[in-house]
Each structure stands twice: as structure tokens, then as C-alpha cells.
Amino acid sequence: MTSVRTAPPAGEDETDPRLRRLAIVVVLGAIMTVLDTTIVNVAVTTLGTDFGTSLSTIQWVVTGYTLALAMAIPLSGWSVQRFGARTMWLVSLGLFISGSVLCGLAWSLPALIAFRVLQGLGGGMLMPVGQMMLVREAGPGRIGRAMSIVSVPAMLAPVLGPLLGGVIIDGLSWRWMFFVNVPFCAVALVSALRMVPRDTERSRDARLDVRGMVLLSPGLAALVYGLSEAGNGAGFAGARFLTGVITGGILVTAFVVHAFRRGDGALIDLRQLSTRAFTAATGGLFLYSAAMFGVMILIPLFAGIVRGEPALDAGWLLAPMGAGAMATMAVSGRLADRFGGRWFVVGGVLCVLAGSLALTTLAPGTGRSVIMGTMFVVGLGHGLIAPCLMAMMYQGMPREAVPAATTGANILVRVGSSFGTAATAVVLQIAIRGEIPGASGNLDEASARHTGATPALLANAFSETFWWVAAVLVIALIPIFAVPRKSKGAPDHHPVLTKTRR
């Protein structure tokens, strides 16, 4: 029989070997799945040429993966309860590896899109399942450190994806963008078999909420699709944007009503997530994700459209952001566990805000060192925000609510990042039309307009858009301040959340 632990044993404030081994497994498996959301972006033109089709059609190689990710995330909580976290981690990793191999062998565009969907179904569950495993193993006294580990793949993907994709496209076949996943994920698979303990927390009686799945998974896919269409040039008045968002909004709303009525039998038990800490922290995470993804698409676009730099050179501008984030992530989780995360998150937001305000002054001739230095500052702030906010959402949460909380948070981050990407692109298009009368706002058209005055006018449009990003960051502070403070002298471990290991 398993007994409840009410006090941490000596030395548990440190990251023990078991947690470190689990962390290695999670990072190895998750990093390639997150990289695949960005690595293919730089190959869209090459794929269109090889398959002899239009860019709008080849874009489904990216869109199919993104939609499959969104549809798979809601199933992660139930699948862990039914089959166990280790089992689902291995199954998801196997799906992702199989999809990667098949993508590399794809003989036609429909086959490539289908295999990308298979990849996405596996990749969509890997991050939330890995996060659940780490949270359960860490216990509330070390959640900040666990979330620092989880944040590593999410931080490195937008930075390394375009760089790795550019290197592969320049020197190898596009097929290696998928084959490169195999050795990394194979190591993760072997490591999981050896290092991750067998499942002990699972319920054979856990039934799949079919109605909830039919409402939520397609609803999220429709929302993400509609937002991606807005970001791809359709704008907020486009028919596909409106169809996707309205359909998705109706389905997700219907799921919320269904979930509150069904309670603990729902695909995601929303009643377990009604704590002030979870609501406020995930609200801040949603808004912050929107702003941060806005920054990460604006910098490469600025380099390509205003300065005419190739994709690989533009991608290098983001690299210092990853370096800055890694520097603060190394300590932010530990500090959040000890002192609470609110003020570290506030400090991080102010740091990112300062960087965003500096970016409002960008001009065509701004030195690369200035941009890269600013992105390093943004990265320092990001490394404080992401782990602390994710740790704060679990504050005071019972152990049985961890799957629902993790699934819900991953859904909000996915939708928030899609919203931020779409809104930023639309705001930029509007700003371009304002600066260049008669311009359609189409980014491809804008990149070709390099007359004498056009670069400066385009730079002004980017400055206006960075002001929008800064405004969203300020708004994000409202829910962040609403997160309850960590009580002084409160025990690190909630007796309901952590159980003794035998």
C-alpha cells in the first residue's frame, strides 16, 4: 500500500538522479517534435518546386502537422489515466518516429501530407505526457525546476528550427529534415525503456469521453486553421478565417458546457481547473505566448523583407534569444520553488517589454549586433517567465488534477501562439498598407518593393507592430498579478500531491 508523504526527505530540495534521468528522456523526445513545427517552414519553396505544385498547396505540409498536433493534445490526459504515462510516451514517440521515416520516403505530396499528420498525432501528445511525468516525479516542491526542463525544447525550437532547416536545404535533400529526427528519437526511445519506471498510476476503468473528443479536437483544429489562414494573408475578414474561428469557437464552447455537466468523466475535467492560480497563470501564459510568438516571427520577417537577407542569416538573429533564455532558465525554476514565481515572472515580462520597446526603433540600417543584443535581453526575460508561470499554475492543485491541468495548459499555449502569429501578421499587413498607400499588405509583394524609400517605410510598419506586441505584454501583467502569492513558511509539498515511493 502506498502511504502519503507529508514532509520531504532530506536532500529532496535538490534534483535527484531519478528526476534527472526522466528529464533527459523528456528533453530528448520532445525537442525534435517541437523543432518540426518550425524546421519545415524554410523548405516550403523547395518542396513546391520538387513536387511541382503551388505554395498554397504545399503549405499543407506545415498546416497538416500543426492541426494534428492540436487535435492530439486533448487526448493526452485521458490516455495517461487509462494506459499510463510511460506507455503513452513510448507509443507517441513510436508514432513520431514512424511518421518521420515515412515523410522522408514520401513519393508524392498527398503521401507527405498524410505522413506529416501521423507525425503530428505522435508529437502532439509527447510534450504534455512528458510534462505530466515530470510534474508527478518532482512534486510541488520542485515543480519550478521541472518546468525549466520542459521549457528547453519549446525555447530552442523557434531558434534552432529555421537554422537547422536552412543548413539541410542548402547542403542536403529536404528528406533529411525528417530523417534527422530518427537518431535523436531512437536514443530517446531506448532511454525511456531503460530509465522510465513502469506505470503504476493508471485506471482500466477510465472511459474515453467520445462526445467531448468529437467536440474539442475538431474545434481546436478549426481554431488553429482559421488563425493560420489569417496569418497567411487572409486577414481577419477572410472567409476561411471566419469559417475556422466561428466553427472552432462553437465546438469549443459546446465542449466547455459538456465538460462542466459531465464533471470527472469529461475528456478534460474543467471543474478541477477552476482554481485562481491555474486560471490566472494560464491566462498570463496565453497572452505572453501570443506576444512572444509575435516577436519571433517579426525578426526574421524584418530581416528578409526590409533588409533582403537570406533565411539562414535572418534565423541567426534569433539565436541570442535562446542563449539568454538558457542562462536564466538554469536558475529561475529553483528560485521559483523557493520564493514563489510571481515577481520573477513580472521581472521577466518587464525585461521582454524593454526589448520589445527597443525593437520599435528598428531601421533598415540597424546593426546586426544591436538586434542580436536586444534578442539576448528578450531571452533573459523569457527564461524567467516560462518555467515560473507553468509552475505557478499547479500551485495548490491535487495530484489527480495534473493530467487535466497539463492538457488544458498545452491547449492554451497552442491557441495563444497561433493567435499571436496570426494577429501579428495581420497588424503588420495593416501597417504596411498605412505606410505605403496602394500596397495590398501582402508580405511577398512587400519584400519585392525595394525602391529608395520603401525600406524605411516598411521599417516604420514593423515599428508599429512591435508597439502592438508591447501592449499585449502589458496586458499580460494583469492576470500574472492575480496569481496568489506563495505563503511564507508553507510546506513545499502538498500532502495530497506527492506520494511516497516504495
Structure description:
The protein has 502 residues and is mainly alpha-helical. The protein has 3 domains: 11-196, Up-down Bundle (Growth Hormone, Chain: A); 219-260; 268-502, Up-down Bundle (Growth Hormone, Chain: A), CATH 1.20.1250. 74% of the residues lie in helices and 0% in strands. The protein is built from 20 helices and no strands. It has helices at 17-35, 44-51, 55-58, 60-72, 75-83, 85-104, 109-138, 143-171, 176-179, 181-195, 210-234, 239-262, 276-306, 311-316, 319-339, 342-359, 368-393, 402-435, 443-448, 454-482. Helix 13 packs parallel to helix 18. The longest helix is centred in the C-terminal third of the chain and has 34 residues, at 402-435.
Overview features:
Growth Hormone, Chain: A, disordered C terminus
A few lines on this structure:
The protein has 20 helices and no strands. With about 500 residues, it is an all-alpha fold.
Topology:
Layout: H1 17-35, H2 44-51, H3 55-58, H4 60-72, H5 75-83, H6 85-104, H7 109-138, H8 143-171, H9 176-179, H10 181-195, H11 210-234, H12 239-262, H13 276-306, H14 311-316, H15 319-339, H16 342-359, H17 368-393, H18 402-435, H19 443-448, H20 454-482
Helix pairs in contact: 1-7, 1-8, 1-10, 4-7, 4-11, 5-6, 5-7, 5-18, 6-7, 6-10, 7-8, 7-18, 8-15, 8-17, 11-12, 11-18, 13-17, 13-18, 13-20, 15-17, 16-17, 16-20, 18-20
CATH topology of the largest domain: Growth Hormone, Chain: A
What value does the Rg take, in angstroms?
A: 22 Å
Report the structural category. Answer: mainly alpha
Percentage of residues in helical conformation: over 70%
Number of domains: 3
Please tally the β strands and state the result: 0
Question: In angstroms, what separates the terminal alpha carbons?
Answer: 9 Å
- Beta-strand content estimate: under 5%
The CATH class of the largest domain turns out to be Mainly Alpha
Principal-axis shape: globular
Write the element-wise H/E pattern from the N-terminal end onward. HHHHHHHHHHHHHHHHHHHH
What CATH architecture label of the largest domain applies? Up-down Bundle
| Major beta-sheet overview | none
Low-confidence stretches: 1-13, 488-502
Mean pLDDT equals 78
